[in-house]
Input
Amino acid sequence: MKKHRIEEDMPIGGLKRIDDLLPPPEELAVPEETVMVTLRLSEKSVDFFKRQAKRYHTKYQKMLRFLVDKYAERYS
Output
C-alpha cells in the first residue's frame, strides 16, 4: 500500500472562491495624521517593544502608536 504525503502548502478539501476583501493600494498609502509628543517610558517597556519590532520587521514607535490608538478606541 502506498502512503500519501500531504505537503504543507497543498490545499486540503474542496476549494471555494471568496471575494477580495483587501483595500486597493491607494487606500493603504494614505498618510497617517500624527502629533509629536515627548513621553518618558520605562527602559524595560521600550526594550520589549524594540525586540518585538525586530521580530516582526517593523518599527517600535509604530507598535506603540497602534497600542495607544487601540486603547483610545476601546475607552472612547
